[in-house]
């Protein structure tokens, strides 16, 4: 059972090094590591060249392409029966490949979604993002640990499925993986959440990075919902946001127990800001669409 790992990258040499090192340390080395470089201007190419003796790397530079087109380029190059997508700001636990192979022995015709853990775990922005991600999973979780969507940070496809159902390259705001997951679910292809396939994802640790990340997520959700009858009001009162209110209360109670008054005040501010970003992202995408 052969496996190819597709990693799109751009100007993340330090994080890419951690990602590739985690593949070097696997109990089973993947058959191909396909790196699609979106014209990086940092030391990414040097990092990649250093790992060519340790990993079976296929390296291709694609200039000024969006993320779904980078994934598609890597998928088209892959020669294995199993194709995994992995973000360049993730590192995987040492049995990641081994557990992927084990999962496919049980579910040979399914998509396997791995477990994502946010880090560094002692950062307030990471904690909120981790909660956001878990709530996103909860709202799309079906029976028997199956999902209605998928996340390209760490997801694995049978080659015959993904090569017939590539990412739609017009979804530029990060909604490409959700769209693909929905499309596959509508075709009755199972997406199974396997918590033994673990990847650690580096989150933003500054307010500026946190805002930028959630602004992109807000636009991503708006791109998908703009084609339906959903409104920004429904975005505000979504189940995911209601779950976030409970998470906010938990964080505040924890900080009260530590007598950290500054954080008790700061946490509601962050959640209010996220709500405004959600609505703002929807309005921004809708405005752009009306201009066309």
Provide the domain count: 2
> How many strands in all?
8
CATH class of the largest domain: Alpha Beta
The termini sit apart by 47 Å
Radius of gyration: 19 Å
Order of helices and strands: EHEHEHEEHEHEHHEHHHH
| Name of the CATH superfamily of the largest domain | Spore Coat Polysaccharide Biosynthesis Protein SpsA, Chain A
Structural class: alpha/beta
| Widest sheet, order of strands | 3-2-1-4-7-6-8-5
Helix percent band: 40-55%
- What is the helix tally? 11
Shape: globular
Tell me what the structure shows:
The protein is an alpha/beta fold and 292 residues long. It has 2 domains: 200 residues, Spore Coat Polysaccharide Biosynthesis Protein SpsA, Chain A (Alpha-Beta Complex); 85 residues. Helix content is 51%, strand content 18%. It has 11 helices and 8 strands. It has an 8-stranded mixed β-sheet with strand order 3-2-1-4-7-6-8-5, sandwiched between helices. Helix 2 links the parallel strand 2 and strand 3. It is globular and about 55 Å long. It starts with a strand and ends with a helix. About 4% of the residues have low confidence.
């Amino acid at each position: 059972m052969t496996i190819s790992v597709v990693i799109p990258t751009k100007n993340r040499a330090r994080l890419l090094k951690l990602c590739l090192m985690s593949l070097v340390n696997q109990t089973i080395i993947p058959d191909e590591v396909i790196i699609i470089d979106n014209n990086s201007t940092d030391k990414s190419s040097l990092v990649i060249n250093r790992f060519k003796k340790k990993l079976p790397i296929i390296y291709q530079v694609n200039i000024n392409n969006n993320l779904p087109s980078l994934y598609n380029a890597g998928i088209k190059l892959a020669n294995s029966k199993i194709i995994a997508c992995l973000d360049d700001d993730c590192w995987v636990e040492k049995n990641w490949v081994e557990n992927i192979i084990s999962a496919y022995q049980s579910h040979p015709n399914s998509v396997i979604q791995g477990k994502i853990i946010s880090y560094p775990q002692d950062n307030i922005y990471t904690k909120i993002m981790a909660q956001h991600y878990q709530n996103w999973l909860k709202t799309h979780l079906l029976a028997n640990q199956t999902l209605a969507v998928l996340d390209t940070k760490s997801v694995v496809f049978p080659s015959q499925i993904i090569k017939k159902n590539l990412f739609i390259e017009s979804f530029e705001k990060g909604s490409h993986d959700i769209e693909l997951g929905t499309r596959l679910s509508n075709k009755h292809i199972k997406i199974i959440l396997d918590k033994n396939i673990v990847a650690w994802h580096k989150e933003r640790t500054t307010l500026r990075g946190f805002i930028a990340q959630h602004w992109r997520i807000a636009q991503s959700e708006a791109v998908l919902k703009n084609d339906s009858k959903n409104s920004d009001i429904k975005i505000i009162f979504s189940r995911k946001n209601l779950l976030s209110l409970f998470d906010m209360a938990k964080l505040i109670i924890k900080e009260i127990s530590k007598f950290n008054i500054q954080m008790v005040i700061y946490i509601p501010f962050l959640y209010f800001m996220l709500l405004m970003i959600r609505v703002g992202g929807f309005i921004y995408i809708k405005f752009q669409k009306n201009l066309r």
